[in-house]
Amino acid sequence: MFSLMYMASILALNTGWESKDVYFTWTPQGEEYKYVVEVYTDRELTQLYTQTDPLDTYFVYITFTESNLYFVRIKYFIPNSNEYEYFNWGQIYLNLEHEYLGEDEIWFEPEEEVLPVEQVSPPVIEDIYQYTLPKDLDMREEVGSVLGSTTLDTKEICNIYMFKNGKHTDTTFRCKLGIKISKVKYLDWGEYLTLEVEGTYFDTVPAKVKIFDCRRFDILNPLTWFECKKILVDSYEGNLPLRYIGYIKLNGITQKSVVWGFADTSFFVRNIYTKDISKENLKLSLEISSYVKGKEWIDVISTTQKQISIPKLEKSPSNKPFSFPFEKSVGVNQWYGCTTYQCPHKGIDFGVYMKEVLSIGDGKVVSIGYDKYGGECFQGGKYVIVRHTNGMHSTYFHLDSYSVKVGDIVKNGSLIGVTGNTGKWNCQNLGYHLHFETRKERISSSHVNPVQYINADWNQVPTLNYKTYPGRLTGENPHPNF
Fold first, then answer.
1. Partners of 367 in the beta sheet?
2. 179 neighbors 201 (Cβ within 8 angstroms)
3. How many whole angstroms separate alpha carbon 412 and alpha carbon 455?
4. CA separation for the pair 301, 299 (Å, rounded)
5. Cα(395)–Cα(390) distance, integer angstroms
6. Which of 52, 88, 141, 314 is the most buried (most CB within 10 A)?
7. How far apart are CA 482 and CA 464, in angstroms?
C-alpha cells in the first residue's frame, strides 16, 4: 500500500552528504482524503523530528540534515472529520557522512580505522585468496532466466566489483551506459522559465559482476590476523536491467521542482526557474540502479553526470484562447478522449478537493443548476456553463457550490465556484473532482480537447497516482508517461 524510495542528495564538496532528500509515495485512500507524514527519532513516536502540512498529493519530499535512525508514519483523514488513521512505515537509517540510506542501522568504523584505499579498491586476481563456497551454501538461482540473455557481444562489457564487509557493501560500477543528451530547450513562459532536457540511454548492459567478502580470522592463516583478506565468493555474467532517476543540478545543488519521465531507452528531465540561469553551471544527474542474484539479491547503484549546454532563451508562443481553470497547476484523474474508464470522456477530470474554480476567459453565464440529464444514476451534480466571447463554451461539473447566476458577465479568472463531489456515476457517489469541458457550441456533443485550447504548460499537470492506476494515463494525454 505504501512505499518508500529515495532520491540522490545534495552532495558536499568533501566526502559525504550535507543533506538527503527522501521521496515518500503512497497509495491514496480516496479522493477526499488528506495526508500528513510524520518523522520521529524514537520507536515510541514521542520525539517528533518533522511533519508535513496536510497534503492533497500522494507524495512528498522531506529533507534530512542529520544522521540518525528515524521512524516514519502517515496520518490520513477526511477534512472536517474527527476520525483519522495511521499507517506506520517503520524505520529508516540515514548516515550522511558515509552516504548511506536504508532500513537497517549500520555501524561504521571510525575514520582512522578505515582500511587504506589500496586495500579496498577493486582487486586484481593475484591479490586474492580464492575459494569455492560449499554447495549447501550456494543458493543461487538461474540468473539468466531472471535478467535475460547472457549474450555479451552487443555492447561494451560493464565490470562491477562489490566488496561486502558485514552488512555494508561497497560497489564500483564501471560502465558506458550510452547516455546522450539529444535536445535542450530553454523557454520563457512569462511568469517563469523552463529548462527541458531530452536524451537516450541503454536500458540493459552486459555485465561481469564479481562479489568479494572478508575472510574470517583464522589462527592458522597469518594473512587474516591484522586486516580484511579479500576473497572472491560469487560472480555473474549476463545482461543487467537498468532503472533511472533523473534530476538537474544548478551550481552543484539538486533542484527539487524537477519533472522527469523515462521510457525504454529515452528520457526527459524538466525544471522551472524564476530567474535567468543561462550563465549558471548546470548538470544532468542520473541515478542508475540494478540488481544481481548471488546467494542473495544485491542492489547495484551508481550516479553519473553530464554537462548541460544552455541554449538561447526562446519565447514560448501560444495562440490558445483560454487560461487554466485554477490559480495553480493541479493533477488529473482522467484525461479527455477514449480512456480505460470511458469512451468518449468529454472533458478532463481534475483531482482536487474544495478548490476555487476560475473562469477560463471572458464571457457570460448561460446556465447553472443541478444536472440530472443522464438519469438518476448518471448525474453531473451542481454545474455552471459559460459562453465566451469567441463563441465557445466552458462547463464545470460536480461543484460543491457556485458563485454566479445566469446572465452574469465574467472575466478571465473570475470565481465560478468551488469543486465538490455532487452527482453520481453508475449510481455511485463520486470522489471530489472537477469535470471540466470545452465545447465549440453549447451542446454536449460539440466537446473538444481542453488541452488544445487552454494556454498552460501541461507538463506541469501530472496524472495523479498513475503507478497504482495506469489506466489514468490513457486518453489524449499530452504527456503519456506521467
1. 385
2. yes
3. 12
4. 6
5. 15
6. 52
7. 8
Strand partners, 364: 387, 409
Average pLDDT over the chain, rounded to whole?
Answer: 78
pTM: 0.44
Q: CB–CB of 96/67 below 8 Å?
A: yes
- What the block records as the C-alpha cell of 217 is 580470522
319 with 344: CB under 8 angstroms?
no
Which residues neighbour 86 within 8 Å (Cβ) at sequence distance 6 or greater? 73, 74, 75, 76
* Cβ–Cβ < 8 Å for 30, 465: no
Structural domains in the chain, sorted by start: 1-111 (2.60.40.10), 115-317 (2.60.40.10), 332-473 (2.70.70.10)
The pLDDT tens digits of the residues spanning 407-449 come to: 898 999 999 999 999 988 777 778 889 999 999 998 888 999 9
H/E stretch holding 145: helix 143-147
461/482 Cα distance (integer angstroms):
9
> What value does the mean pLDDT take over residues 42-60?
83
Phi/psi class of residue 145: alpha, beta or left (left: φ > 0; alpha: ψ in -120 to 50)?
alpha
Q: By C-alpha distance, which of 167, 141, 184, 148 is closest to 306?
A: 184
CA distance 304 to 287: 7
d(CA 383, CA 395): 7
pLDDT digit string (tens) for 96-146? 888 888 777 776 655 443 333 333 333 333 333 333 333 333 333 333 323
C-alpha cell at 32: 477526499
Locus of grid cell 544485491 = 298
**What residues pair up with 169 in beta bridges, in sequence order?**
164
Grid coordinates given for 459: 507538463
User: What are the distances in angstroms from CA 97 to CA 10, 93, 222, 235?
Assistant: 12, 12, 33, 30
What is the pLDDT at residue 143? 32
